[in-house]
Amino acid sequence: MPVGTMVVKPVPELVTFILAGAIVVIGALGVVLLPQPVHAALSLVATLFGVAVLFVAQDAHLLAAVQVIVYAGAIVVLFLFVIMLLGVDEADDLQIEPIVAQRPLALVAGVGILGLSLVSLFLAGGATGASSMLMAPDATETNIAQLGRLLFTEYAFAFEATAILLTISVVGAVMLARRAPQDGAPYPEDETVQSGVAS
């Protein structure tokens, strides 16, 4: 292919990219701008589904499945569980900052990270600086088979450790959400236990 030749994508692929990209951008804006945490989490689901569609368009079906099953199906559900468990109320005033000047500092940090990313991208000459690889490292075995074999053999400990950390995070959220009763009143489950012992 001559240098400087522009590759024209087929119309269906271009339309899919535009629609999925719009879903990703709108969902990301909803995560940042919507005042209700539950609505923001649902916008995150839309963003993750849009990214999964982009993965499918790139023939990365395994990444698309992981995006939907792991992130949209597990991580976001965990977010919603913690949000509802903590009892986020509509009466919360989002204008009150728990940390002074956190929004300007976050804006400066975001702009700085974006600038460093762009500088690194231009200096490296590409996303990674390495040539793209369009074929499997081992032509006798598919990428999915290689990934599955490595995940459950060589990296099985890291995989299980991640599952344990997620479980610990859920238990920690439950314990944090278990607010102490006022005036020395027992917890509801304590009352149940006491009534059972009395009977």
Instruction: Enter the CATH topology name of the domain at 10-90.
Output: Four Helix Bundle (Hemerythrin (Met), subunit A)
Which range does the strand content fall in?
A: under 5%
Order of helices and strands: HHHHHHH
Terminal CA distance reads 85 Å
Mean pLDDT: 74
What features would you describe in this structure?
With 199 residues, the chain is an all-alpha fold. Among the domains are: 10-90, Four Helix Bundle (Hemerythrin (Met), subunit A); 141-181. The protein contains seven helices and no strands. The longest helix has 26 residues, at 61-86. It starts with 10 loop residues before the first helix and ends with a helix. The relative contact order is 0.06. The model has no long low-confidence stretch (mean pLDDT 74).
List the helices and strands and how they pair.
Layout: H1 11-33, H2 37-57, H3 61-86, H4 102-124, H5 143-151, H6 156-177, H7 188-198
Helix pairs in contact: 1-2, 2-3, 3-6
Question: What is shown here, in short?
Answer:
With 199 residues, the chain is mostly helical. The chain has seven helices and no strands. Among the domains are: 10-90, Four Helix Bundle (Hemerythrin (Met), subunit A), CATH 1.20.120; 141-181.
